[in-house]
Amino acid sequence: MDLKRRVLATGTRTGRNARSSDQRRRHRDEDGILPVLARAVREVENAVQRGRVTQLDRTKYQVIALLAREERARVRTATDLPDSRRDTELKRLEGIAAILAQIAASHPTFFELLQDDAEVTSETRSLKREMQRQGGLEPDAEEPEPEPEDLPGAERQVVPQSVVRRRMANPFMAPDFSVLTPRPQSHHLAGWELIGPLLNAFEHPTPGAPSCMALPEAAELKLPSAAELMPHQARLVAAAQQGHRTFLLADEPGLGKTAQALLAAQTAEAFPLLCVVPNVVKTNWAREVQQWIPRRSVTVVHGDGEDMDGFADVVVINYAVLDRHVGWMAEHGFRGMVVDEAHFIKNKKSQRSQHVLEIADRIRQRAARPLMMALTGTPLINDIDDFRAIWQFLGWI
Question: Counting beta carbons within 10 angstroms of the beta carbon of residue 373, is it exposed (0 to 12), middle (13 to 18) or buried (19 or more)?
């Protein structure tokens, strides 16, 4: 009798151990990223079968593929994973991959999401982090949002109808600049070994050393009635009269940099002139043109430029919409370019800076000795190296 009770007790404990082992196995199978991927892929599969595929389903499909790849690479290289467990997880991943393949076979547009160079949107990254959290993984670090002018969708190009009419008004064929060999340009700062000492000289100047070139004495200049220049303005215009064509104006706000730029362009006959400025001062630039060079026409580009005048002598545009107009502006025949608040282009990696530099390079290729002016009244906030993009715009480096 005692033996029978011991046998029954042993059998009961064995049954309990077996059930406990099954529960641990089921619990373990429900942990981690794999069950999250399995549920998600079934949801996408059901959506495809119903014929109601949404953008969220496509995003989820791409996230599943990305996480499955990463998990497969982790499982294959994990050194602390038993072989039996590795084989089990790889089989589960193969099952998920098989469903992904079946979905793509029945809905071919999903194939493009499996490509290595497929675009990963912010929505995809966000959903991926959410699924990683559900699977108990450390989510990917959030990437900083790009500046509004650097968004991928901002590459839409436009050509205003007024610009088209200007092209059609030319009775001669436009020259093909692509067949020309770029003429070699010699810059005082062409050797990069000079940049380091030069930047250091700006950052740690010799006491009493001047911060700008010596300007000539003011020359006689015909101005609109009631207009009067300050001495420093008149001397800069005199420098343009003597043939100087690149300027970095760092006068403090209120000292008339806009007037200096416009009068220098008048003296150098640098029209049509392109002025890239912050949005808040676009209309002010138009007023300054009418005040200082009233015989020159001016147009302000808003949005797609539907209301602009392609025949104007001065074209004013703000940084935020420049990306739409890079194409035609690079071929418009500008003979001068002014960048107001030039510290806006100090980050050479931003599309804003790249567009400005691209247009400046194309102007130099097409015009002999164009007028290039950078205006900034704001002290450098980060370090002296921020001068690089401005100097590149001016053609110094």
Answer: buried
Place of tokens 């005199």: 238
Cβ pair 286, 300 in contact under 8 A: yes
Residue 127's closest CA among 52, 43, 45, 29?
43
Q: At what angle do helices 195-203 and 387-394 cross, to 10 degrees?
A: 120
Amino acid at 135: G
CA distance 263 to 252: 18
Quote the CA–CA distance of 352 and 305 in Å, as a whole number: 18
What DSSP state is assigned to residue 220? -
Q: Which residues contact 183 (CB under 8 A, 6 or more apart)?
A: none
Cα 308 to Cα 326: distance, rounded to the nearest angstrom: 15
Q: Cα separation of 317 and 321, whole Å?
A: 7
Distance CA 17, CA 188 (A): 84
Q: Which of helix, strand or coil describes residue 249?
A: strand
Distance CA 315, CA 329 (A): 10
Q: 3-state class of 54 per DSSP?
A: coil
Per-10-residue mean pLDDT, the chain, length 397: 50 52 51 88 90 88 90 86 88 88 80 76 89 88 57 66 82 59 50 59 71 76 77 88 88 85 92 93 92 93 90 93 90 92 85 91 89 80 70 83
Measured CA angle at 274 (ends 273, 279), to 5 deg = 140
Encoded amino acid at 352, one letter: R
Of 347, 285, 349, 355, the residue nearest 314 (C-alpha): 285
pTM of the prediction?
A: 0.57
Q: CB of 131 within 8 A of CB of 33?
A: yes
Return the amino acid letter for 265: A
Q: 4: Cβ–Cβ under 8 A, 6 or more apart, which residues?
A: none
What is the rounded CA–CA span in Å between residue 278 and residue 275?
A: 10
- Backbone dihedral region for residue 362 (phi beyond 0: left; psi -120 to 50: alpha; all else: beta): alpha
| Rounded CA separation 132/136 (Å) | 6
Query: Nearest 5°: phi and psi at 266?
Result: -65, -45
With a CB cutoff of 8 Å and minimum separation 6, the contacts of 111 are 104
Angle between the N-to-C axes of helices 122-134 and 55-77, in degrees from 0 to 180, rounded to the nearest 10: 50
For residue 151, the model assigns a pLDDT of 45
